[in-house]
Amino acid sequence: TWITHAPIADLMIVWAKDDDGVVRGFILERGMQGLATSKIEGKFSVRASPTGQILMDDVFVPESQWLPGAEGIGAPFSCLNNARFGICWGAMGAAEFCWHAARQYALDRKQFGRPLAANQLVQKKLADMQTEITLGLHACLHLSRLRDQGQASPEMVSLLKRNCAGKALDIARVARDVHGGNGISDEYHVIRHVMNLETVNTLEGTHDIHALVLGRAQTGISAFN
User: Fold this and answer.
1) Catalytic site residues?
2) Which residues touch 187 (CB under 8 Å, ≥6 apart)?
């Protein structure tokens, strides 16, 4: 369940164990006997992307549709790591939009004859946003270079996905606060990023799950099986 583009996809890769107990990628095509999809309705977040379920009832997948070169649990995890890495950049992009929107709104909005940006608390919020975004983008760039050199570990990706998604959500919420009541208006788009980042904070591993990944790396003890 909660499969991105499941309601409209013509091709789907499903990870499962074969008869020998080996994890493989199986390529499913819409129209296969026993294969169906459903759409999850009523989402408030990531509404541009249809999400649903893949339903399988005795679906037969011929060997010609086994994903080549992808055996073992490491194969799907490599896909997850790539997706998590991309999320880091995307989350920082959304945060940067919210920061710029908050800055502009604070300059344009006048109260008692002065712009909101003249208040110390507002300036502190803008400075905090700028700081976290700068740190996040530099970390993303550094991890990109490590990946190019083949030196990046899954734990590095977990650390950055966890931090970038969490910080971006925090920044979006503060930006909405700077906008006051207008922060929930679609005219300013900040609330759209808040709602979407709630999903980003959950997908491809939640904030807490990535904490357990990092905890295992630090202690050598796994808190989950």
Assistant:
1) 204
2) none
- What letter would DSSP give residue 21? S
Q: What is the DSSP letter of 8?
A: T
Is the confidence at residue 110, as pLDDT, over 90?
yes
In 3D space, the residue among 65, 39, 63 whose CA is nearest the CA of residue 53 turns out to be: 39
Closest CA to 180 of 95, 118, 79, 110: 110
Helix (H/G/I), strand (E/B), else coil: 142: helix
pTM for this one?
Answer: 0.92
Is there a contact between 63 and 24 (Cβ–Cβ < 8 Å)?
Answer: no
Asked if residue 117 lies in contact with residue 107, where contact means CB atoms within 8 angstroms, the answer is: yes
User: Residue type at 215?
Assistant: G
Going along the chain from its start, the domains and CATH numbers come out as 3-71 (2.40.110.10), 74-219 (1.20.140.10)
**CB within 8 A of 153, min separation 6: which ones?**
none
Distance CA 146, CA 141 (A): 9
| Whole-angstrom distance, CA of residue 158 vs CA of residue 110 | 42
Largest CA distance in the chain: 74
Q: Say which DSSP state 74 is in.
A: H
What confidence tens digit (pLDDT) does each residue in 172-207 have?
999 999 999 999 999 999 999 999 999 999 999 999
* Cβ proximity of 157 and 81 under 8 Å: yes
- How many residues in total does the chain contain? 225
Query: What single DSSP character describes residue 195?
Result: H
